[in-house]
Every structure is written in structure tokens, then in C-alpha cells.
Specification:
With about 250 residues, the protein is an alpha+beta fold. The chain has 8 helices and 10 strands. Helices cover about 30% and strands about 30% of the residues. The strands form 3 sheets. The protein has a 6-stranded antiparallel sheet. Strands 1-2 form a two-stranded antiparallel sheet. A hairpin with a 2-residue loop joins strand 5 and strand 6. The longest helix is centred in the N-terminal third of the chain and has 14 residues.
Length: about 250
């Protein structure tokens, strides 16, 4: 099929450096002309490259070659900036909003509270190398963090928790799924509505095993790569070995 040949040709240009990381692709009209095809067929090829994380689209600006994805380890609970710097990336955060609100039903369920209870809602936009990649919204239980909004919460809640409240993250529960970007989230990430995204939902516990907050993260899907090392417990290893021995009897 022609769109597959076009996709492979553009991918080859990316792999060989003809199209470099972060650079804008030619306008769709010019690309279609260069491949002697229709814009409909071209867009099929571009959509495949987008799904593979090779290119991304910015609203009203066009298509760009994707930078390397940030490796995101669910077991790594340090702040975003430290994670980015450790991978030779330049992080930046912008505070979008911060307020005390009543929890909606979803957040109340996550935090084991009622919709009559209040939570801090803190929304931030985070960028890598000047490219917006994730919108993070934290919902925080005020009982553990009185007067939280008086502190600088633009960059790292992890640091604020540790330095001002003597609380540290020690356990996190994750749920990761695919979704699409819409509304204000898409606008903040300079993405077109409907662009693919990774959704990360986290429940965070402190050193006393208290559930202290949750956060909802909407990532440009090409900007993140989930990667972790799992270690089997001795009990699991024993069961695995026992089952293997039974099968070979």
C-alpha cells in the first residue's frame, strides 16, 4: 500500500538524520507533492508515524520529529526535574492553577474521602527541552499539609513535602492507560484535539503509610517510555522452580 511506503520512506529519513530531532517536517501539501500522492494518503502515513512515536503534531504549526522519550520508572519516586536532569534533559514547570476545592466523585473515591471534603488542586505544565510534554494535576489532602499554598509549589511538591512537612513518598500505586488529549489539556500541550496520550494515575503514600495525595498525568504519548526492573521475591522464585520441576517429572 502506498501509505506504508511513504511511512517507511519518512522513517528512513528520520533514522538517517535527513529529518533531525525537533525539526519541522515540510508542509503536508509539499510532502504530498514530493511523494506524488494525495493528502489523504499522506495523512495515513503520518498517523502511523505518530502512533509509533516518531513524529508529533502541534496545533496550527505542523509536524515535528520527536525527541527521545523520557524513561519513566514507576518505582522511581523522585521529582520530575531530577528525573529529567539524570537523563540529560532540560526540565521546566509552569503553575497553571492552585486552589482549595471540594473533591469530585472520582477524586473522593481515589482518596477515600467524600465529596463534602476539600482538597488542594494543583495543576502544572511540564516541559522537556522547551517542549510541553505533560499536564499534571495533584489532589492533596489538606490535613497533612496546612497552608500548602503559601509555599512555592511550581516546581516540586516532593521537595516541599520533605522540607516543610517532613513527609516523604515511600509507596506509590500506579495505573497507566492510553487516552487522547482534549480541551484545555490539549491546548496547554500545543496538541491538536484527539492526539494520542498516555494517562498515568498515581496514589501516593508517606513514610507512615498515609495516603496523602493523588495525581493525574496526561503525557504526549511519544514523550514517555515506561520502563522498570521487577525483582521476583524468593517465594515467587520457589513456586516457579517447583512448578517447573513438576512439569519435567
Amino acid at each position: 500500500m502506498q501509505y506504508l511506503k511513504i511511512k517507511d520512506a519518512i522513517n528512513q529519513q528520520i533514522n538517517t538524520g535527513i529529518l533531525q530531532i525537533g525539526h519541522k517536517l515540510p508542509a503536508e501539501r509539499k510532502l504530498a507533492e514530493s511523494f506524488n500522492t494525495t493528502r489523504i494518503t499522506l495523512r495515513e502515513a503520518l498517523a502511523l508515524l505518530e502512533s509509533e512515536g516518531k513524529i508529533y503534531r502541534e496545533d496550527r504549526r505542523g509536524w515535528f520529529v520527536s525527541p527521545p522519550a523520557l524513561i519513566y520508572d514507576p518505582n522511581y519516586t523522585t521529582e520530575f526535574a531530577a528525573m529529567a536532569i539524570a537523563q540529560d534533559r532540560k526540565p521546566h514547570s509552569v503553575l497553571l492553577s492552585a486552589q482549595l476545592i471540594h473533591a469530585n466523585q472520582h477524586i473522593a473515591t481515589l482518596l477515600n474521602i467524600t465529596t463534602n471534603d476539600s482538597v488542594y488542586r494543583i495543576e502544572r505544565l511540564r516541559s522537556l527541552d522547551s517542549r510541553p510534554v505533560v499536564v499534571v494535576t495533584n489532589y492533596i489532602l489538606p490535613e497533612f499539609f496546612p497552608d500548602l499554598l503559601k509555599h512555592d509549589i511550581t516546581h516540586s511538591l516532593t521537595v516541599t513535602y520533605r522540607e516543610h512537612y517532613q513527609r516523604i513518598y515511600t509507596k506509590t500505586r500506579f495505573r497507566i492507560s492510553t487516552t487522547s488529549l482534549n480541551g484545555n489539556t490539549a491546548s496547554a500541550l500545543r496538541a491538536t484535539a484527539g492526539s494520542p496520550a498516555m494517562f498515568v494515575e498515581r496514589l501516593n503514600y508517606d513514610q507512615h503509610d498515609n495516603l496523602i495525595d493523588c495525581d493525574l498525568e496526561y503525557w504526549r504519548h511519544d514523550a514517555i517510555r515506561i520502563e522498570s526492573l521487577a525483582t521476583l521475591s524468593s517465594a515467587c522464585l520457589h513456586k516457579t522452580t517447583q512448578k517447573k520441576n513438576e512439569l519435567t517429572c
